[in-house]
Amino acid sequence: MYQYDLETMLSKIILPGLRDTFLMLGGSIVTCSVCGFILAIILITTDSRGLRPNRVIYETISAIINVLRSVPFIIVIIVIIPVTRFVVGTSIGVGPAIFSITVAGSPLIARLLEGCFKEIDARLIEAAKSFGASDWQITWHVIVNESIPSIISSMTLGIVSLLGYTAIAGTVGAGGLGAVALTYGYQNFDDTIMYSTVLVLIVIVQFIQIAGNALYRKLK
Amino acid sequence: MIEIRNLSKTFDGKQVLQGIDLTIDKGDIYGLVGVSGAGKSTLLRCMNGLESFDSGDVIVDGVHINRLNKKELRYFRSGVGMIFQQFSLLERKTVYENILFPLKCFKSKMNNVDQRIREVLELVELTEKIDVLPRQLSGGQKQRVAIARALIMNPTILLCDEATSALDPNIKQSILELLKKINRELGITIVVVTHEMSVVKGICNKMGVLSGGKLKAAGSAQDIFLNMPDLLDDFMGEENYRDDTSHHQKIKLEIIQRNGENDDILSRLAIETGVKFELVWGGLSKYSDSIAGALMIRIHDTELARIEACLDKHRVEWRKV
C-alpha cells in the first residue's frame, strides 16, 4: 500500500476524478434527458388512452425499455462494448461512459417522464380538445407544461441514479470518482481516499436533491 | 341549430345511445337530464365531435359533423364552447393565459387580444383576478374563468357538462344566473347536462330526459315538469322531487328537539301518518337562550291535521313557520 499526502491526494486523484464525474454526469444528463423525453412523448401519445393510440409502436418501445431496465447496468456496459467501440471509437474514458449511461439511463428517464405525463387529468386534455387544440398543442401546452413540477421531482431522482451509473462506469475504465474509490481506495486499502470520495459523492447528491426541491417549489 | 337524427353509439359492446332524435333551436337553453350512466354526457360530446358515433347524424348549423375531417373538426370546435364539472383549467397558467389558450391554438391574428380578454372577464365579473393562478380561486371563480375561456372564440353554442355539480348551492345559483345572462345578452344557445332538477328548473326552456341511452321525453321544460312528473320520478330517481304544481298550499313546520329527545320523530311521522313530506332543513338552532336540534319539513296544508296529531301524541315541540 502506498500512502499519498493530502495535497497529492486532492490535486492528483480526487479533483481529476471529480472533473470526470461531472463531465460524465453533465453529458449523460443531456443525452438521457433528450432521449428519455422523446421516448416518453412517443409512449404517452401512442398509449391506448393517448392522443394517437398505436399498439405496435407502444409495445415495441415498451419492450425495449423493459429489456434495458431489467439488465443490471454493469452488465449493460460490458454487453454493449462492441457497439460502444463502433459508435465512439473506443470503450475507455468519459465519452464511451456517456454512451453507455445513455443506453441504460434513457429508458429510466423515459419511464419517469411517462409517469409524470400520465398524471395529467384526462379531463384537462378533453377540455383542450373541446376548444380545438391540436394534438401537438395538447402535448406541449397541456401534458408537458402542466407536469413541469413533477418532471423536476422525477429528474432529481433520475439524476441521482445517473450519478450512481457514473460510479459504476468507473469500474470498467471510465474514470471519475467511482474509479478513484475503487482503485485507490478499495484495491489499495486506502481508507482516507475511500471515505473522502464517498463524502464527495454524498455532498453532490445532497446538492442535487436540494436544488431539485428548491426548483420544484419555485415552479409549482 | 343543433339537429340530432337517429343517433346511436355502442361502446365495448354496450349500447350507450340508441336512436336519439333531438332538435335544439337557436337561443334555447336546453337541459339534458338523467341519472349517471344514462348517456347524457356522451350525447353532449357527440355535439362537438369529442365522441364519435356509429350511426345517425349530428347537424350543427347545417354542418354534418361526422363528415368533417380532423382539421375541419378542430375549426368547428372553436365555434362551440364547452365547460366542465371540474373546470379543467391549466393550473400553472394565470387566468389571462388560460383564457388566451384557445386563441393561441389558432394563432389567431385577433387585434387587441388584451381588450378581448378583459371583455370576457368583465362579462363573467372577474376582471380583478386577471393575473391570478387558478389555485388561488374558489370553485365558482374557476368556473367563471372556464366560461370566459369558452367564450373567447365567440362561439354560437355553449355546452355545459355538469358545470354546477361541484359547486355550493348559492355559488351554483350565481353561475346559473351568469349562463342565463350569456344566453340573453349574447344570444348563445346553451346545452346543459345535469342530474340536478334544480338546474333545469332554474334556467332551461326545453329539456330532454335520457335513460339507458334512450330519449324518454323531450320538449318544453314546463310541459315536462307539469305533465310528466311520474316520468321524472322514474328516470331521475332520488335526485328528483316533484314540484308543487297542485293547488294545495305547502306549509313549513319546524320540529324542535330538546336534549336529543324524539330523535326518531321523522320515521315515526312517516310510518304513523303515511303522509309524504319533504325535509327542507335540519340542524342546530338557537331558541331564545338555549340550543336545540331543529328539523324543517314541508307538507301540504291538507295534511296538517294528521301531522299535528302525531307530533302532539309524541309530545314534540313544533311550530308553523
UniProtKB/TrEMBL annotation, chain A:
Keywords, alphabetical: Cell membrane, Membrane, Transmembrane, Transmembrane helix, Transport
InterPro entries cross-referenced by the UniProt entry: AA_ABC_Transporter_Permease, MetI-like, MetI-like_sf
Main location: membrane
Entry annotated with the keyword Membrane: yes
Membrane topology: Multi-pass membrane protein
Superkingdom per UniProt: Bacteria
Residues spanning the membrane: 22-44, 56-81, 87-110, 162-186, 192-216
One Pfam family hit: BPD_transp_1
Transmembrane helix as UniProt keyword: yes
Record localization: Cell membrane
Domain ABC transmembrane type-1: 18-211
Family in the record: Belongs to the binding-protein-dependent transport system permease family.
PANTHER family: ABC TRANSPORTER PERMEASE, D-METHIONINE TRANSPORT SYSTEM PERMEASE PROTEIN METI-RELATED
Protein's recorded name: ABC transmembrane type-1 domain-containing protein
Organism for this UniProt entry: Paenibacillus plantiphilus
UniProtKB/TrEMBL annotation, chain B:
Keywords: Amino-acid transport, ATP-binding, Cell membrane, Membrane, Nucleotide-binding, Translocase, Transport
Pfam families: ABC_tran (PF00005), NIL (PF09383)
Classification via PROSITE patterns: ABC_TRANSPORTER_1, ABC_TRANSPORTER_2
Domain of life assignment: Bacteria
Gene3D superfamilies, sorted: P-loop containing nucleotide triphosphate hydrolases
Residues covered by the ABC transporter domain: 2-237
Protein name in the entry: Vitamin B12 import ATP-binding protein BtuD
Organism from which the protein derives: Paenibacillus plantiphilus
Gene: btuD_14
